[in-house]
Amino acid sequence: MKIGIDKLSFFTSDLYLPMADLANARNEDPNKYLIGIGQSKQAVIRNSQDTVTLAANAAMKIVDDEERAKIDLVLFGTESGVDNSKSAAIYLQSLLKINSAASGVELKQACFGLTAGIQLAMGYIALHPDRRVLLVGSDIARYGINTLGEKTQGGGAVAMIMSANPRILEIGTQSTHLTRDIMDFWRPLNRDEALVDGQYSSEEFIQFFKETFNLYLESQDETINDFDALIFHLPYTKMGLKALRAVLENVDNLSVKERLLDKFEDSRRLNREVGNLYTGSLYLSLISLLTAGTLKDGANIGLFSYGSGAEGEFFTGKVVAGYEKMINKNSVKFLENRQAVSVSEYERIYRSFLKPQTDDAKTDFKNDPAPFVFKGQENQKRIYDQNNENRN
Ligand code: COA
């Protein structure tokens, strides 16, 4: 049975910060951010968005009434969730009015959460071929103003529906996996900003990729020539390029090198414009590649997922003929209509995020054009709203 991604969508803020402006404000050469880090813009997430609303705004693009009835599992990958107990999947299920017979859970392993969901969904659909699974990867990447990680912030959500006989990407049943207990990036319970040993994390990322990729090639008796594209989790887009270069070093065939480097450029196009999505990053890269319009039907894509702490997985997907009908340039056109903000406005918005607190509080939701917003909290319960209903 063929199982994979049938629908795919993406959402992020209507605001962004030009990376050259951030570099100038931090007395750095803009080329360090634009080339050295590989980022042109960074999404500036409003305080009226959280991982639940970002996910709802992404998923509403692919969930219609037919889906509402057929989805019976909601898998929510995040590492910046809103509650230590209640799953974000239940909020999402409620906001999207998905039938109440569906079950939902939140999955956490740093940026790996959505990939873990994909593997669970594969098994679920194999047992229930007529059912559909909604998956999201939704996060806000916050490292702090004037920190080393500031230039690798961002946020947004990728949503997908997985099913039998998928119309976008058929996922391979074989994958290779590696887990090691390391401290490269983490976020203790008392913090809303990540702690990271960035150089160490980059080295481990490359090592995890090389090990899982080589293991995959050996176990499947394949070579790098068998791939039309290799795509990566992209905390910043230079990270993927470094990992790709690490395996291209040993490749003599120039046309293979050229093809994989060209496709990598296609696959980092949107990530470069948005920044880090954590759980959604690899899948935004997939959307970048698919919407570039350069893939042939049946193209074989290798995907590397990495979640600090750390877990890595290499798996594959075959592009389904006619995928352009399901996802194309129009799906991401909204990115062109975003508004740039100044560094001081970004800093104001960043500082305005609600901290964990007991008092009632409101966000600046009235200014937020997104369909779903987080209005604030009452009696320590989060209040969500859709489509400008009661926005006062
Ligand atoms: N023009 C072009 N490139 C330049 C440059 C210039 N003027 N100045 C510096 N660079 C390059 C550097 O050579 C380096 O490239 P390399 O990585 O290929 O060697 C790159 O820019 C970054 O410079 P560096 O000095 O390493 O940056 P930094 O110390 O400010 O930190 C990160 C960069 C990515 C390590 C840091 O932002 C970070 O930790 N981010 C978080 C990453 C993360 O979340 N990891 C965990 C999840 S996987």
Automatic annotation (TrEMBL):
<feature type="domain" description="Hydroxymethylglutaryl-coenzyme A synthase N-terminal">
    <location>
        <begin position="3"/>
        <end position="164"/>
    </location>
</feature>
<dbReference type="InterPro" id="IPR016039">
    <property type="entry name" value="Thiolase-like"/>
</dbReference>
<dbReference type="InterPro" id="IPR013746">
    <property type="entry name" value="HMG_CoA_synt_C_dom"/>
</dbReference>
<keyword id="KW-0808">Transferase</keyword>
<dbReference type="InterPro" id="IPR011554">
    <property type="entry name" value="HMG_CoA_synthase_prok"/>
</dbReference>
<dbReference type="Pfam" id="PF08540">
    <property type="entry name" value="HMG_CoA_synt_C"/>
</dbReference>
<feature type="binding site">
    <location>
        <position position="143"/>
    </location>
    <ligand>
        <name>(3S)-3-hydroxy-3-methylglutaryl-CoA</name>
    </ligand>
</feature>
<dbReference type="GO" id="GO:0004421">
    <property type="term" value="F:hydroxymethylglutaryl-CoA synthase activity"/>
</dbReference>
<dbReference type="GO" id="GO:0006084">
    <property type="term" value="P:acetyl-CoA metabolic process"/>
</dbReference>
<feature type="active site" description="Proton donor/acceptor">
    <location>
        <position position="79"/>
    </location>
</feature>
<feature type="binding site">
    <location>
        <position position="276"/>
    </location>
    <ligand>
        <name>(3S)-3-hydroxy-3-methylglutaryl-CoA</name>
    </ligand>
</feature>
<feature type="active site" description="Acyl-thioester intermediate">
    <location>
        <position position="111"/>
    </location>
</feature>
<feature type="binding site">
    <location>
        <position position="29"/>
    </location>
    <ligand>
        <name>(3S)-3-hydroxy-3-methylglutaryl-CoA</name>
    </ligand>
</feature>
<feature type="domain" description="Hydroxymethylglutaryl-coenzyme A synthase C-terminal">
    <location>
        <begin position="257"/>
        <end position="348"/>
    </location>
</feature>
<feature type="active site" description="Proton donor/acceptor">
    <location>
        <position position="233"/>
    </location>
</feature>
<protein>
    <submittedName>
        <fullName>Hydroxymethylglutaryl-CoA synthase</fullName>
    </submittedName>
</protein>
<dbReference type="Pfam" id="PF01154">
    <property type="entry name" value="HMG_CoA_synt_N"/>
</dbReference>
<comment type="similarity">
    <text>Belongs to the thiolase-like superfamily. HMG-CoA synthase family.</text>
</comment>
<feature type="domain" description="Hydroxymethylglutaryl-coenzyme A synthase C-terminal">
    <location>
        <begin position="170"/>
        <end position="248"/>
    </location>
</feature>
<dbReference type="InterPro" id="IPR013528">
    <property type="entry name" value="HMG_CoA_synth_N"/>
</dbReference>
<feature type="binding site">
    <location>
        <position position="242"/>
    </location>
    <ligand>
        <name>(3S)-3-hydroxy-3-methylglutaryl-CoA</name>
    </ligand>
</feature>
